[in-house]
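re: ur question from yesterday

yeah so i grabbed the chain u mentioned. its 213 aa long if i counted rite. heres the sequnce exactly as i have it in my notes:
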Amino acid sequence: MKKIISFSFWILIISCSQKQETNQENRLPFYHTADFTPQWISDKSQLDTLHSLANFEFTNQNNQKITQENLRGKIHVACFFFTLCPSLCPKIMGNMKVVQDSFQHDKNFIIASYSVMPDRDSVPMLRSYATKNQIIDNKWHLLTGDKKQIYQLARKSYFADENLGVQKGENDFLHTENFILVDKNLRIRGIYNGTLSLEIEQLIKDIRVLQKE
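ran it thru and got these structure tokens back, copy pasting raw so excuse formatting
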């Protein structure tokens, strides 16, 4: 009888352990630092201490003001581009359209693409680009504004830059092919190479995981 109880006890312990591991696998981590070290948070009281996006105000392709409050309460994916980019941007924006089309009917999901050449990317330029690339209004915001503020938001809030360990000046050109997944509370939950189809598939899967939180 004692052996049966002991055996049952260990089965229970193993089962609980496996359940905890499964729960962790089914949740996306948080990214609190620029080195993108994943953190799984079980204590909800710690959530308020996590990194989140700073306040901002930019203008989209429809000449509408967009702030962080337009993103709050929605899952969003961010990337950085410019309309005259000849090589990298067409690839990443084409892949972002795959993401757009996968969630075009989801009112709680949007995309934010920030121009890294805002002096050239005026509202009319963004409008033309949106039309040419079948970008859905209010689903996908192409954003322009003050260059210094865009670069600061990119590097300090989204941790979006190549060679993260290299010290750069605020006016150094921003280069990244990454997509950043952000939750409804403006916290980073994933980073993906926007040029790779397999990474886009994973991003879409992770968005669906995040929708269940």
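noticed a couple things. Strands lie at 30-31, 38-39, 57-59, 65-67, 75-81, 109-115, 140-143, 178-182, 188-193. also The CA atoms of residues 4 and 75 lie 49 Å apart.
anyway ttyl
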